[in-house]
Amino acid sequence: MSSTISEMDRSREIIRDFWSSPAPALSAEEQQALEQEICDLLVAQDAAIVAHYYTAPEIQALAERSGGCVSDSLEMARFGRDHKASTLLVAGVRFMGETAKILSPEKRILMPTLEATCSLDLGCPIDEFSAFCDQHPEREVVVYANTSAAVKARADWVVTSSIALDVVRYLKAEGKQLIWAPDRHLGNYIQRETGADMILWDSECIVHDEFKAKALEDLKKVHPHAAILVHPESPQAVVEMADVVGSTSQLIAAAERLETDTLIVATDKAIFYKMQQAAPDKTLIEAPTAGNGATCRSCAHCPWMGMNALQNIRDALRDGRPEILVDEEIRQQAEVSLGRMLTFKAR
Ligand code: 13P
Ligand code: SF4
User: Fold this and answer.
1) Ligand 2 midpoint to CA 119 (Å)
2) Are residues 246 and 275 in the same domain?
3) Statement to judge: residues 10 and 112 lie in one domain
4) Is 67 left (phi over 0), alpha (psi -120 to 50) or beta?
5) Is residue 121 lining ligand 2, measured as CB closer than 6 Å?
6) Domain carrying residue 154
């Protein structure tokens, strides 16, 4: 997969450049002024912010305060589609902006940067994926939302981690054999849970793939009463230690519901902002991403989500770019597979 490797290398270089000159830290007064500027621009541009739980706390807070949303990728898609604003500012990664455009072609979709992508999207180039599907024409194609518009257009179904188990159980009951792409850990988890006949594409999320079962076991010994919450993009050995496995929204709901006062969380640590609001009296601990010899115990933060900042949100709203555009033929095809997810009701 030479094209995949070079795309990934290119993106890593962009991340390195980005983090070598990050946006300057703001004083409290500067941040307040910038937030006010963004709120004024949102009104002037008839815009709403649609943000993911993995963006910085100040972005999540601003999205909520200004009448936008902070949510998982399924709810982001629904909110963006149903909101009356003519412009959506999507704070997250590129596939989330593309999903918004696919569902709302009449809206202008702005993002803080188009370089914020996802290792799963990079790991599933359309030409190779399409050739893979062509080898198995008898199989229904189910893809994760973390893919390009072109991959969604090639699929029969798009799912997010909130709804993947329900959709695959339904397809299995219908007697379907499946192709699953791109996250092999999530695919593996779904296969184990549902017993569906699935062929898996081989890619992973570079953030969740780093969680380590052995170090988690050691951490659990220090906090024997803690519950372990795991996003299913994590490796099997980590998922098997979980008390709750679920999408970001499902993990936040579990944090609120569970009776235990300590939670070890295996997903991007930016989720702690909303999780702590949902469970204010609980202690949240990052699951380890490094073995015992490492100095960094948890680096669980998506480098692409981290490219969203108040400064580039302001710039995008002020300048009207960068804007997400999707080829109309691809958009129409992708709308079919995405639409199936959004109208799906668990049977
Ligand atoms: P959710 O759909 O659970 O929000 O996950 C999106 C994602 O990118 C997780 O890494
Ligand atoms: Fe993609 Fe992983 Fe980042 Fe989610 S956390 S956007 S799956 S790289």
Assistant:
1) 6
2) yes
3) yes
4) left
5) no
6) 120-205+330-343
